[in-house]
Design goal:
137 residues; alpha+beta; five-stranded antiparallel beta sheet
């Protein structure tokens, strides 16, 4: 049976880097996101965190932001790997089965991902912490 898209409460994009030069590009992408989109920018992690095999930061966003942000990332990700996944309350499926990659896909550490809400797979609501200066341009 098909799962309705309404089960998606939000999305995450994870932008990865593995060198100082890539980190600089990732931070430029982050700034571009911050001035264009109403999103929640997560902590900059200069180490592997959870299932993520490289340094990264997370961008949390609501479904209404998807049609502007994802095309912008397609064109402006600066050759970085980006994981985009929905949040349905099933973290393992969201990261491994329902995800899309921009750039080279990376192998996630699935052992750290809970299977369901009961296992800790819930997601906090998106609370935007950006003040865009333009409208998605």
């Amino acid at each position: 049976m098909a799962e309705p898209a309404s089960t998606i409460t939000s999305y995450h994009a994870h932008i990865y880097w593995s060198s100082p030069a890539e980190r600089e590009r990732a931070l430029a992408v982050r700034e571009g996101i911050a001035v264009r989109f109403v999103v929640q920018l997560g902590t900059i992690h200069d180490r592997n965190v959870g299932p993520h095999p490289r340094s990264m930061y997370q961008v949390a966003f609501t479904p209404d932001v998807f049609p502007g942000l994802v095309p912008w990332l397609l064109l402006n990700r600066q050759e970085l790997s980006v994981l985009i996944h929905p949040n349905t309350g099933r973290a393992r499926d969201d990261h491994l089965l329902h995800a899309a990659w921009l750039g080279a896909p990376l192998r996630l550490n699935a052992d750290t991902l809970p299977n369901s809400l009961e296992d800790g797979g819930g997601v906090s609501p998106v609370v935007p912490n950006t003040n865009p200066g333009s409208n998605g341009g």
